[in-house]
């Protein structure tokens, strides 16, 4: 596969088409990003966080409130901004400098001052302390599985006792014609670039990897963190099947 470095590809999205890179809808492409569409983009983040908190209080902890939140793969701040309205402190983590810079601008434009942004690496070496809410949505699917599993373990090491984690992974594909696309991209040189042309994009437009994780291994990681209960729900993004896991790390006696 020609474009195999997912960090570099994500930085390309950050430079060329950051909002579409976060939320792959034509309304959010740079060429279509009107003020109205941008408002729709951020409104979707508000609605999403409201729904997540409702599910946490329904299934995990009825009285849950956020003190310190971490959003892994924060992009341009779609979810960081609504989190800042319900948490005392928020940390946005992303591997792309361009995404982080855009997220900072979006927070500054809204006079949000309780958010910090941190550059990500596989060991999360720039993170300090623990968080009572750790979240990641439509992010790990773009990270190669071996790296993603290790990052997930490192994230859990930053989850506070009695803290809540909400994390999304893809685990399978359910489509027909597109089944060949991952194979073609991986084994046929320049296939990703040719697909770009077919889709009306630039030849060297960045590519999003879509990786499927082993659910058994994920649940083993969660259980090893001494978690004994969780709530799960399924997602389906154009045939990319996923699972969102909600769980609480037990309070240390």
TrEMBL record:
Cross-referenced Pfam families: Methyltransf_25
Note whether Methyltransferase occurs among the keywords.
yes
Question: What's a Gene Ontology MF term here?
Answer: methyltransferase activity
UniProt-listed CDD domains: AdoMet_MTases (cd02440)
Keyword field: Methyltransferase, Transferase
GO biological process annotations for this chain's record?
methylation
Q: Which residues form the Methyltransferase domain?
A: 70-163
Kindly provide the name given to this protein in its UniProt entry.
Methyltransferase domain-containing protein
């Amino acid at each position: 596969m020609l474009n195999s470095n997912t960090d570099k590809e994500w930085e390309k999205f950050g430079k060329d088409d950051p909002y579409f890179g976060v939320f792959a809808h034509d309304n959010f492409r740079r060429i279509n990003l009107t003020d109205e569409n941008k408002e729709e983009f951020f409104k979707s983040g508000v609605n999403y966080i409201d729904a997540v908190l409702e599910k946490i209080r329904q299934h995990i902890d009825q009285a849950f409130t956020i003190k310190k939140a971490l959003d892994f793969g924060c992009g341009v701040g779609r979810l960081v901004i609504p989190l800042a309205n319900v948490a005392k402190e928020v940390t946005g983590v992303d591997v792309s400098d361009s995404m982080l810079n855009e997220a900072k601008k979006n927070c500054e434009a809204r006079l949000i001052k309780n958010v910090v942004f941190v550059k990500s690496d596989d060991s999360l070496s720039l993170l300090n302390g623990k968080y009572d809410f750790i979240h990641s949505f439509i992010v790990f699917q773009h990270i190669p599985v071996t790296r993603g599993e290790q990052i997930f373990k490192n994230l859990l090491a930053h989850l506070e006792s009695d803290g809540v984690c909400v994390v999304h992974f893809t685990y399978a594909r359910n489509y027909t014609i597109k089944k060949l696309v991952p194979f073609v991209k991986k084994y046929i040189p320049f296939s990703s670039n040719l697909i770009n042309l077919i889709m009306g994009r630039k030849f060297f437009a960045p590519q999003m990897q879509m990786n499927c994780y082993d659910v058994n291994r994920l649940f083993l990681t969660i259980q090893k963190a001494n978690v004994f209960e969780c709530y799960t729900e399924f997602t389906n993004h154009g045939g990319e099947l996923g699972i969102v896991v909600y769980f609480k790390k037990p309070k240390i006696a």
